[in-house]
Design brief:
Blueprint lengths: L1 H6 L3 H9 L5 H9 L3 H16 L2 E5 L1 E4 L28 H10 L7 E4 L9 H14 L4 E4 L2 H11 L3 H11 L1 E3 L10 H7 L6 H13 L4 E7 L5 H18 L2 E8 L15 H14 L5 E2 L3 H4 L1 H7 L6 E4 L20 H10 L3 E5 L7
Parallel strand pairs: 1-9, 1-10, 2-3, 3-4, 4-5, 6-7, 7-8
Helix pairs in contact: 3-11, 4-12, 5-6, 7-8, 7-10, 10-11
The structure holds ligand V47.
Length: 361
């Protein structure tokens, strides 16, 4: 093994991994350009097992997308629609609560709620939505509104991000999902999502949440026009933010799905690319407790293999996912608890059902 690692030019990285020394930009670039995927997986697995042993987590959750109306219309997104578009929709609060009620006899621990950047929904809509969900199902953890939505909600209310987060928390917000980070690079944002919150602003919202005690996740959308340098910069910026606040729970590399988007001439990601992005994230983000292989985007088979390439979490049962499926995702809409546990056991890992904050259920 040691000879293979030396021959692959990964010796220095192996030594750092063994000694728990943070990898630097050059290491990141080497990992993104090396052809030795099994060895990169081996290195990432060392970190994964040091942090999470043999455990692989999943959560019994439910997704609700309250509206797809969006002013940003990012080029990589097939979900967002302009107001007035025939496929545009928005749910009123009763409809959102009805979605919660439909699953009330199931042991759902988390509801994951995201939507577009809606031009007219008022501040109170978001606050009331959380309150109404908590009234219907007080014990459920609400993971809602990406950092991009939080900044938008704050602007709607004429409030600071910190005050908005406090209002949302008082109404029932438990934590914040990792969406909207995309790739922080100016070049990418200019070309793909010029209307969106900048990378710096996204990080500022996340850190503000952490400072008032709200945990968040982080993502990176890969497989479009990004370069290895831009991905490494993205990961290092997240790592630095985590050094400051410690408020990130989990990092999720998101595999770009091109169908029905303005980038539909691009090919979907391959399995090797998916596994590499999981592994490099695990290796660079030493201070992130968890790396999620989101089965909805990776497909259950690649997600299962990812459990040996740095990932320790498969997300959850999900139910009714729209963002990936509108972009041509062919995975199922939901997966049962026994199917997830089977995937995990077959990978030689021990399934652990968790709540959103990674407490064992
Ligand atoms: O922000 C949009 C991405 C994100 C496409 O925090 C696309 O645990 C692929 O962030 N192909 C939303 N991706 C989803 C998300 C998420 C999902 C699951 C768990 C968590 C978590 C977060 O989806 C968006 C964007 O980056 N996205 N369009 C597409 N065509």
């Amino acid at each position: 093994m040691e000879t293979a690692i030396k021959d692959a030019g990964l010796w220095e990285i192996y030594r750092k991994v063994q000694e728990d020394i943070p990898l630097n930009r050059e290491d990141g670039l080497r990992l993104y350009t090396s052809k030795d995927i099994p060895l990169i997986g081996f290195l990432a697995n060392m970190v994964r097992e040091r942090l999470n042993g043999n455990q692989a987590y999943y959560v019994y959750n439910q997704h609700i997308n309250y509206s797809n109306v969006c002013m940003n219309l990012c080029k990589f997104c097939a979900f967002g629609k302009e107001k007035g578009h025939p496929q545009a929709y928005e749910m009123d609060i009763n409809e959102v609560v009805e979605k919660i009620r439909e699953r009330k006899d199931e042991p759902v621990k988390e509801v994951h709620i995201v939507g577009g950047i809606h031009p007219d929904l008022p501040y109170e809509y978001y606050v009331e939505m959380l309150r109404a969900i908590k009234k219907e199902r007080p014990e459920i953890h609400i993971q809602a509104f990406t950092c991009v939505e939080i900044a938008h909600i704050a602007a709607k209310g004429g409030k600071t991000v910190a005050d908005t987060l406090k209002d949302l928390r008082d109404a029932g917000l438990g934590s914040i999902p990792g969406g909207g980070a995309e790739v922080f690079s100016h070049r990418i944002r200019e070309r793909l999502c010029p209307e969106k919150l900048s990378g710096r602003e996204w990080l500022e919202v996340a850190k503000t949440a952490h400072r008032i005690g709200i945990k968040t996740n982080a993502t990176m959308l890969y497989g479009h026009i990004e370069s290895p340098e831009e991905k490494v910069e993205h990961l290092l910026a997240l790592r630095d933010a985590q050094e400051e606040t410690g408020g990130f729970m989990c990092f999720i590399p998101l595999a770009f799905h091109p169908k029905n988007t303005a980038l539909d001439d691009l090919a979907p990601t391959g399995g090797i690319e998916d596994l590499r992005n999981i592994a490099v994230a695990r290796l660079i983000l030493y201070n992130f407790p968890h790396i999620k292989a989101y089965w909805v985007m990776l497909g259950p088979k690649v997600a299962q293999i990812a459990l040996s390439f740095g990932a320790d979490d498969l997300d959850g049962t999900v139910m009714e996912e729209k963002i990936t499926h509108m972009a041509g995702g062919e995975t199922a809409q939901a997966i049962s608890r026994s199917e997830i546990e089977h995937l995990i056991r077959q990978a030689g890992r021990e399934p652990v059902e968790r709540d959103t904050l990674y407490n064992t259920v």
